[in-house]
Design a protein that fits this description.
It comes from Sandaracinobacter neustonicus. InterPro entries: Amidohydrolase (IPR017439), Bact_exopeptidase_dim_dom (IPR036264), Peptidase_M20 (IPR002933), Peptidase_M20_dimer (IPR011650). Pfam families: M20_dimer, Peptidase_M20. The protein has 444 residues and is of the alpha+beta class. It has two domains: 318 residues, Zn peptidases (Aminopeptidase, 3-Layer(aba) Sandwich), CATH 3.40.630.10; 118 residues, Alpha-Beta Plaits (2-Layer Sandwich). Helices cover 35% and strands 24% of the residues. α2 crosses α4, α2 crosses α11 and α4 packs across α11. It is elongated and about 85 Å long. The relative contact order is 0.19.
């Protein structure tokens, strides 16, 4: 810890934006911590990913790392495998900082020297390959880095920081379970909640910070279409669930185009269609796996209602009896709500980072998809929340991809890789600066 403190040179003129610790000071301190401590920690996390809701070893390591921070009070098994560290430092605002811990059931083919070779049983007991294919290893390493810096700078801020190592983001369940386990009641209701996600599509050294909706609402929907089995040569003797389910798939896209307002973002994607067993058999069941996305809850509810209505009406149209109509199930435990960045906090952080780094720190984030996040479940009523992106790919690699060179692997790809060092450093710096600004000690 003394090494961290000595790395920060408090010689700059007083600055209200970050309790007179300059960005250069902080950059130097984080860089030193990376070279002496954080790099092997990140390597460990990347080599040893764990699946959603079974992040037992990752949680234990996060608890160990947070306990090593002087003054940190750590609680394990919050909402399952969640870990919460509380760093109290006098009166002032309560600030929640969040990082997600889980990996994905993907076999890593990144070619990295520290590529994961892990296999693990998921929560259903099925053995899967595991990879940090979404960069959560950078998030948890960055959270540890932030905790270490804030502990070294306790004379520059006043308040309470809650460090949340959250499980099960990939199945959109971890944040809700931590809240259901009385996160606020046990550790304090935050005034602010902040998180970040590495983005392979953004250049290293930049962040994407935007007001309003940055992630969509998401629902996982299962549709079971019963049929009446028959010989394939005698279709009139049965009710073909493949034909009926195919009509449902087509009708859902018509529903999006004809019943949802053009300026209301909405997606219904049928990601899986399972039915049948043999060429000449009309099966007795078809199953559809559907993801639903919207940017507001009114549109989300309309989409869910439409899926139910169209599924049942299509079954009736093709003569299914009332006791064999399609069954639509919405998985409430996998539901995500939109992430809506608080305008006031977003503008405050934008001004903070612009003053610290100049406008070069910002990159334009074009929303060309409707990805989802469960971070907003941690942002309760009256809490100001911001979730931003940190660039993960060198600009040269992005430029080469645009020029026809090797494409930059997307998140969830077995080829996924980011510049972990750059992401951890900038993520930790920006998060630390946010706390120093929001909880600046008067007169420091």
């Amino acid at each position: 810890m003394k090494g961290l403190i000595s790395a920060i040179l408090l010689t700059a003129s007083a600055s209200a934006m970050a309790a007179d610790v300059t960005p250069a000071d902080l950059e130097k301190a984080v860089a030193q911590d990376w070279s002496t401590y954080l790099a092997p920690l990140y390597d460990h996390f990347h080599r040893n990913p764990e699946l959603s809701a079974v992040e037992v070893n990752t949680a234990a390591r996060m608890a160990k790392e947070l306990r090593a921070v002087k003054g940190m009070e750590v609680t394990e098994k919050v909402g399952g495998t969640g870990v919460v560290g509380v760093l109290k430092n006098g009166p002032g605002p309560v600030i929640l900082l969040r990082a997600d811990m889980d990996g994905l059931p993907v076999e890593e083919k990144s070619g990295l020297a520290n590529a994961s070779k892990v296999r693990q049983k998921d929560r259903s007991g099925v053995e899967q390959p595991v990879m940090h294919a979404c960069g959560h290893d950078t998030h948890i390493t960055g959270l540890v880095a932030t905790a270490r810096q804030l502990a070294a700078l306790k004379d520059k801020w006043s308040g309470t920081v809650i460090f949340v190592a959250q499980p099960a983001e990939e199945i959109v369940g971890g944040a809700k379970k931590m809240m259901a386990d009385n996160l606020y009641q046990r550790f304090g209701k935050p005034d602010y909640a902040i998180g970040w996600h590495v983005a392979s599509a953004l250049p290293t050294g930049t962040i994407g910070l935007a007001e309003g909706v940055t992630y969509s609402a998401a629902d996982t929907v299962d549709i079971v279409v019963p049929g009446i089995g028959a010989h394939g040569a005698s279709p009139q003797s049965g009710k073909d669930p493949i034909f009926i389910a195919s009509d449902i798939v087509q009708s859902l896209q018509g529903f999006i185009g004809r019943e949802i307002a053009p300026l209301k973002p909405a997606v219904i994607t049928v990601g899986a269609f399972h039915a049948g067993s043999k060429h000449n058999i009309i099966s007795d069941k078809a199953e559809l796996s559907v993801t639903v996305r919207a940017d507001d809850l009114e549109t989300r509810n309309k989409l869910i209602d439409g899926i139910k209505r169209i599924s049942v009406q299509t079954g009736r149209k093709w003569g299914l009896p009332e006791d064999k109509l399609p069954i639509v199930t919405v998985r409430e435990d996998e539901r995500a709500i939109p992430n809506i960045n608080d305008t006031e906090l977003t503008r405050r952080l934008h001004a903070l980072y612009a003053k610290a780094y100049g406008d070069k720190i910002f990159t334009t984030v074009t929303r060309d998809s409707m990805g989802a996040e469960d971070f907003p479940y941690l942002v309760g009523p009256g809490v100001k929340g911001v979730y931003y992106n940190v660039g993960g790919t060198p600009q040269a690699a992005l430029d080469a991809a645009k020029a026809g060179g090797p494409p930059v692997p997307s998140h969830h790809s077995p080829l996924f890789k980011v510049d972990g060092e750059a992401a951890v450093k900038l993520g930790a710096q920006t998060m630390t600066l946010a706390v120093l600004d929001l909880a600046a000690k008067p007169g420091s």
